[in-house]
Design brief:
Alkaline Phosphatase, subunit A; nine-stranded mixed beta sheet; two-stranded parallel sheet; 10% strand
């Protein structure tokens, strides 16, 4: 009981002391009264910053080229409408609406920033329905390129900055709403004048330095995002219907690729191998020299090639969209289409070989580091992922192993084995994946071993951070990585190819805009290489260029047309499935 009494007494004294202390609001008021000029300056500084933040967000573009100083000197219609609404509302509704309005502006700003990033790397805007999963891939890419600490820091920083941006924007609009309410007559006149000026500038098309004075940037961005969502939802049903119709879906096994019976066929994709590699002034000289040198070396070994262009369904990344488009005959340019087609039974080019029963089928996927159920859809009897090729050497940023090692492992595990059937293979080469640092170098094929020979090469290579930060360096190193991948693949063919080997190799997409440039095409080279002249005679009517380097004016096809053209060229008989 004495203890209880003592505690009660202490609590009473603390309550008495706190009652005598001034509240934070009282102290703030006292400080303002003591320093009125400083308080007024601070108050108007905050008002100005809040206004600049809101107006800047409303004028922010969703593409990097739009980030120009005069783009932020325009009159946003959304600010005028917001001001009129806040002036008209009573206190409590005004605060709620202002907070929601500001938070909405914050969210739209985040979407604009995501749009900028996606357009820079993938050549398209961010899709709020489909693309959240790609953010995990982005984090994994940063972890592989810069380390797990940098990846975690980037992820945490992005979340914190997003929450901070939305919160600060909401507080800014609430502050501005309160300011407008305190000066309602003047605010009303100002809104009326601003609205009149905006309408006049719109009607007359007034511009400064080619930039319209009147802006509806935020409304346009919101409309674009909405249209993207609606188009995605509509596309899902339309594409599912399209995927059910297949020109070769009901073709009997005996009538699929009969003209390639007995051949070992390899479909190889080279990461980011695009038209830029053969046409950019900085990149092309080295790549062209490599292609011409390797064409001559293959010809000396008895191999000849024909090359053309395919327009990829993707750009800068999402390689699986390029792979699936080329092999399915369908235009797969987003994740929803990819999920739809891979969950069905649409015939892939690789599965056509499996369906005949005349080939063993295998996939070599050094970039796959987790479960890959798509193997069944591709028609691959066996898949070797990053952990099944025996590699004990270092990673090269995102790429788990050098292409030369992956090809040698493919030779050891599958291509070089004696077998009862010929082999059809899908091989994904990853050494030319961004950030293009460090880049492997070719070593003697007999010295590859378990890959440890690459330890010193990796240590001597360039660091990713230095290459990523410099667009010129990115272009230069990208070119070197393509030279390496092409050399590794064609040396493998020269060393291990036989009279019955047929190699089809192509790029999956162009490199990112920092390398390929704004507005670059989506074209990628494609080549068919063989010793047997009859293999190339079957595609004479394609009018492709002789050798590994397609001419600038060589035929350009949509990548989705390749499957049907290839199947037709090698004797397949169309038997369509219905819808």
């Amino acid at each position: 009981m004495p203890v209880f009494t003592r505690l009660t007494s202490i609590r009473a004294r603390l309550t008495s002391i706190s009652a005598r202390l001034p509240s934070p609001r009282t102290r703030l008021r006292a400080a303002r009264d003591a320093h009125p000029a400083a308080a007024r300056t601070a108050r108007w500084t905050l008002h100005t910053l809040a206004a600049a933040l809101v107006v800047g967000a409303l004028l922010m573009p969703n593409a990097a080229p739009g980030l120009r100083p005069d783009g932020f000197t325009r009159i946003p219609a959304e600010a005028i409408i917001g001001a009129v609404l806040l002036i008209a509302l009573p206190r409590r509704p005004r605060i709620v609406v202002a907070a929601l309005y500001g938070a909405g502006i914050g969210v739209l700003t985040v979407l604009n920033l995501l749009d900028m990033g996606f357009k820079e790397y993938l050549g398209r805007g961010f899709n709020v329905v489909l693309d959240w999963g790609l953010l995990d891939d982005a984090q994994a890419y940063v972890a592989d390129s810069m380390g797990s600490t940098a990846a975690v820091a980037a992820a945490v920083g992005a979340v914190v900055l997003t929450l901070l941006l939305v919160t600060v924007m909401a507080l800014a609009t609430v502050r501005l709403g309160n300011l407008l309410a305190r000066h309602r007559p003047r605010a009303t006149r100002g809104a009326l004048i601003a609205g009149t000026v905006w309408v006049t500038c719109t009607a007359l098309g007034v511009q400064i330095s080619g930039m319209p004075v009147a802006s509806d940037q935020a409304a346009g961005a919101l409309k674009e995002q909405t249209e993207r969502v609606v188009a995605t939802l509509r596309d899902e049903a339309a594409f599912a219907k399209e995927a059910r119709a297949d020109t070769f879906g009901a073709t009997p096994p005996g009538r699929l690729v009969p003209d390639l019976r007995g051949k070992d066929v390899v479909f190889a994709f080279i990461e980011s191998y695009g038209r830029t590699a053969t046409e950019d002034p900085l990149i092309a000289p080295g790549v062209i020299d490599t292609l011409d040198t390797r064409t001559a070396a293959l010809a000396k070994a008895g191999f000849h090639a024909r090359s053309g262009w395919l327009t990829s369904a993707t750009y800068g990344g999402s390689s699986w969209l390029g792979h699936s488009t080329a092999l399915s005959g369908l235009w797969i340019d987003n994740q929803q289409r990819y999920r739809t087609v891979t969950s069905g039974d649409h015939l892939t080019l690789t599965k056509a070989f499996q369906k005949t029963g005349a080939w063993d089928t295998v996939g070599v996927m050094p970039g796959v580091q987790k479960g890959w159920p798509e193997a069944k859809w591709y028609g691959l009897d066996k898949v070797y992922d990053a952990f099944e090729l025996g590699y004990q050497g270092p990673k090269f940023s995102w790429s788990t192993m050098p292409d030369q090692y992956a090809l040698e492992a493919f030779q050891r595990l599958e291509h070089g084995r004696k077998r009862d059937k010929p082999l059809m293979s899908e091989v994904i080469l990853t050494s030319s994946h961004q950030p293009w640092a460090p880049i492997p170098k070719m070593v003697d094929w007999d010295e590859l071993g378990d890959g440890s020979v690459f330890d010193a090469i990796r240590e001597a290579g360039k660091k990713p951070a230095g290459v990523v930060a410099d667009s010129t360096e990115s272009r230069r190193e990208y070119g070197k990585s393509v030279q390496y991948s092409v050399t590794a693949l064609t040396e493998w063919l020269e060393r291990y190819g036989t009279d019955d080997t047929v190699l089809v190799f192509l790029g999956d997409h162009q490199p990112i805009a920092r390398v390929s440039g704004d507005g670059a095409s989506r074209d990628v080279p494609v080549s068919v290489v063989a010793k047997d002249p009859k293999v190339l005679e079957r595609i004479d009517d394609w009018n492709w260029t002789e050798g590994l380097r397609p001419a600038k004016d060589a035929p350009v096809w949509r990548m989705s047309s390749f499957r049907d053209r290839f199947l037709t060229a090698y004797g397949s008989t169309p038997h369509p499935t219905g819808e």
